[in-house]
Amino acid sequence: MKTIFVAVMAIALAACGKSSMVVLQPVSHPVSTNVVQLVYENSTVGVPDDAVARTKQYMDEEFFTGDDAIFRNAEGGVTIRYGYIGFEEGSRVGRYFLGALGNDDAKMVLRAQFFDAQGNKIGEIQSEGTIGGGFFGGSSNSAIRRAVREVASYARAALR
Questions:
Q1: Cα–chain center distance at 21
Q2: Of the residues 58, 96, 122, 160, which has the fewest C-beta atoms closer than 10 A?
Q3: Structure pTM?
Q4: Residue 123 is inside which H or E element, if any?
Q5: Contact (CB, 8 A) for 40 and 83
């Protein structure tokens, strides 16, 4: 009985979220590197400074720390230039009260462009993170993290 209660509470407290990725230009030639430099470029939409700082933090975590980090932060390898082309924090209160019935989702869209050591563009993707309703409304930070994870996942696959 206690296990069922814990499972129901976990589901109730979790925010509904999803992520997706679109490859706009596949990595054009075989690149195998563990050296990556991340560069945040000005976004084409308005993004609060704290969200930019959080995005940079999440990118560093996904690429350079943790058990599955395969890259090291340095110049001379692949440069990934990224920025937002869509940023909608939505309303956490709306997600809390209306959940899936409301239209207050947090939706973040990142564009990431990949450049080789000579500065030639070798690939481009677009990733999206979305958070819908949840018991506490779900944080827009979760949408940012989902979009960042898509970029890191693609880089792991394309740069091996």
A1: 10
A2: 160
A3: 0.81
A4: strand 121-131
A5: yes
Rounded to whole angstroms, the Cα distance separating 123 from 113 reads 6
CA distances from 92 to 16, 78, 81, 121 (A): 12, 37, 30, 38
Q: What does the pLDDT read at residue 31?
A: 84
Residue reference for tokens 């899936």: 100
C-beta atoms surrounding 116 within 10 Å: 17
Of 145, 132, 150, 131, the C-alpha closest to 24 is 150
Tell me the C-alpha distance between 114 and 75, whole Å.
Answer: 13
* b (16+ CB within 10 A) / e for 44-67: eeebeeebbebbeebbeebbbeee
pLDDT at 137: 47
Please tell me the predicted confidence (pLDDT) of residue 9.
Answer: 46
Which pLDDT band, with edges at 50, 70 and 90, does 19 fall under?
Answer: confident
